[in-house]
Design goal:
Residues 40-103 are annotated as: Disordered. Residues 55-87 have a biased composition (Acidic residues). The chain has a domain at 94-191: Jelly Rolls (Sandwich), CATH 2.60.120. 19% of the residues lie in helices and 28% in strands. The chain has helices at 11-32, 68-81; strands at residues 98-100, 106-110, 113-117, 126-131, 136-143, 148-156, 159-164, 177-183, 187-191. Strands 1-3-8-5-6 form a 5-stranded mixed beta sheet, with no helix packed on it. A 4-stranded antiparallel beta sheet has the order 2-9-4-7, with no helix packed on it.
Length: 192
């Protein structure tokens, strides 16, 4: 008589598989909360790339190390020379700002613009926004000292919505907002 035999793995193998599955699940859960950024690849080693001295690094002859502070300062100077602000300041010169008068409750435009507020927003101030373009629609708020505070909107494509200043993460409060910078690729409106 032939019986159907069922093979059972040894108890240790079952525990090992269970531990592997648990570790895999833990890794997957951990990685799902991470964000990764892949930059441009750069060659490693002197034979593939240029030397540190050729890249503008100062070499300390005593230990052969490049000064990262010198390179960072040069990078910041190059960005500022290109007209790009490496910090969170106004993306345009404040003198280019158009005025949003206190007696006007609507702004409208197309494309990018910087607006200086003649009125003072409060936590209860709500703005209604629309955008008819197909690309990014971003409105950032800035203080008198040209420091970036918060985004009122950051969407792609056609948009219609609102934002309440009191709901935005601003350390100095809504009253400190002095500028709005609009980025859009189509017609937009902002009403208060």
């Amino acid at each position: 008589m032939i019986r159907n035999l069922t093979l059972h793995p040894p108890a240790g193998a079952v525990l090992a598989r269970a531990a592997t599955v648990a570790a895999s699940v833990s890794l997957a859960v951990g990685l799902s909360g991470c964000s990764f950024s892949i930059g441009e690849t750069e060659p490693v080693g002197e034979e593939q790339g240029s030397s540190a001295a050729e890249e503008g690094y100062d070499i300390d002859e005593g230990n052969g190390e490049a000064s990262a502070d010198d390179a960072a300062a040069e990078d910041g100077a190059e960005e500022a020379a290109d007209g790009e602000d490496p910090g969170d300041g106004l993306p345009m010169d404040a003198s280019e700002a158009q005025t949003w008068p206190s007696d006007s409750y609507w702004l409208q435009g197309t494309g990018e613009g910087l607006y200086r507020l003649e009125w003072t927003p409060t936590d209860d101030t709500t703005v209604q926004m629309t955008h008819s373009g197909s690309s990014n629609f971003i409105i950032n708020s800035y203080g008198e000292d040209e420091t970036r505070y918060a985004s009122l909107v950051n969407e792609i494509g056609v948009y219609e919505g609102s934002a309440r200043f009191g709901d935005l993460p601003m350390l100095d409060g809504s009253e400190a907002v002095a500028y709005l910078h609009v980025q859009a690729d189509g017609p937009w409106t902002i009403g208060r």
